[in-house]
Amino acid sequence: MAHIPRMETVTALASIRKLLASYYPCFSRSLSTSRPFLSESDHSHDKHEEEEMVTEEELKSSILDSALNFVPSHGWSVKAIAKGAQQHGYPGVTHGLFPRGGGDLMHHFVRQCNNDISKHLEGLSKDTDKSRNSSELSPSILRDAFQMRLRMLVPYMDHWPQAMALTALPTNIQEHFTNLYKLIDDICYHSGDRSVDFSWYTRRLALLGVYKSCELHIVQDGSHDYQETWDFLDRRLDDFTTAGKVKEDIDRFTNPEFFSAVYTVGRNILGVNDQRR
Amino acid sequence: MHLSLLAKGLSRTSIRGICQRHRRLLAISSYRSASSSDGMTSDELIDRILRVDHAGEVGADKIYEGQLAVLRNTSVGPLIQEMWDEEKEHRETFEKLIPQHRARPTALLPLWNIAGFTLGAGSAIFGKEAAMACTVAVEEAIGEHYNDQIRQLIEKDPEKHKDLLEVLKKFRDDELHHLDTGLENDALKAPLYDTMSGIIKAGCRTAIWLSERI
After folding, report:
1. Distance CA A76, CA A160 (A)
2. 3-state secondary structure of A53
3. How many distinct structural domains can be found in chain B?
């Protein structure tokens, strides 16, 4: 988990530490360059007890987790992060730990959702046969995985268009695609894909299209329990499965033997295949 | 009879001598910068290694297929078939390893399919010495490349990557065996050997560089 922090992060953290030290004297004890912060709640306990040290990653993670509670009211913004930090007893300026503001909050949420889906899928594939035939993906696993992932957006549906707009910002694009890649790769792999040729790419691109179109559909869906979106998802997955079958059919007819057979039949028809016996 | 046996023995040792001299010349004259694995995690390194090795084996598979298409009924036909079978085995191994390590295959596979067959058939059309020369050039590039990868893995963590290292070492030895076979079958007698060898090796290194990334 330890990594070398970037200069901007280091200077931002240093300035926050100084700010915290001036407002809260208890923090002045840990002005060394070491990572751990003292959590506010322990200040009230007996000082001789062991101090609970929190690493920077855990601290950021817990602030963002609390900030998610404030997204319905404040959107994916630094306000939500500030409120989340305040819930932990830190001042609102702690949102400076997150240079991308709302983007960081959104990426944290997306990473969490993707990890949950991964764990769920790994649990599923343990039960099923490991040596799956890679020529077809299990439609039931696909549908359940997509539905489960889209349902995770439901609590934040009002502000999800704002999150989608945030992914277009240059600072967020790369992580957005990395997260998407991981999500689609996990779903594809655990529904049975073991291909090692170009269909590795075509399958993932197709599933990416399915996911994105469903995401766009669900943010404007007003039906009860998003039923229209699940029907839309089913139709898209049917298209995906049909396209796979069409490709297989085409492959069956584009091998060299077939073409040489067509060539021979053509010559026979034209009468130029006069083989003297 | 003794004279003929002596002649056979001499010719075998002289071929071995040619092979060794050739490899030494290679080490001195070739200029290559091996890629460094700093800044990459173990997983990224394995992803890259599996991707490029799979691409290499697909290419080699197609090259032998192309050569056999032209030279099937000549004296080297059975030899090429034997080498082709070994490459097929290598390819199957990587096709098992890639899903196992959740690696990504290269997106340029259709390109390597076509290019490999073209190279194999194209070199075989100039005769069986040219086909052997093509084999020698490709196996040299691949042998160097496997050695680089083995070095990178050992630098990272030899214990953790023991299985993959075993696989890579065995395949490297197989490829060098193909190289020796090619040399034994008059590869050096091919017309314009140095030019052809240089072009093919440069092509292989470009293909390796591209497949590592794309």
Report:
1. 8
2. strand
3. 1
Question: Tokens for B135?
Answer: 């084999």
Q: What does the DSSP 8-state code read for residue A159?
A: G
Q: What gap in Å lies between CA A267 and CA B10, rounded to an integer?
A: 56
CATH classification of the domain holding B106 = 1.20.1260
B57 among annotated binding-site residues: yes
Inside any domain, residue B105? yes
Task: Sort residue B192 into left (φ over 0), alpha (ψ -120 to 50) or beta.
Answer: left
pTM exceeds cut of 0.80:
no
Which residue has tokens 């730990």? A97
| Structure tokens, B23 | 């490899």
Q: Residue B146's closest CA among B163, B177, B169?
A: B169
* Contact residues, chain A to chain B, C-beta under 8 Å: 185, 189, 194, 196-198, 200-201
ipTM of predicted assembly, 2 dp: 0.78
Q: Which residue of B lies nearest to A186 if distances are taken between CA atoms?
A: B102
In a domain, B174, yes or no: yes
Tell me: is residue B95 an annotated ligand-binding position.
no
Residue B128 lies in a domain: yes
Flag if B109 and A197 touch (Cβ within 8 Å). yes
**CA dist B86 to B46, B62, B82, B170, B195, Å?**
23, 13, 7, 12, 28
pLDDT means over runs of 10, chain B (214 residues): 53 56 51 64 90 93 92 89 92 92 92 92 90 92 92 89 91 92 86 90 93 89
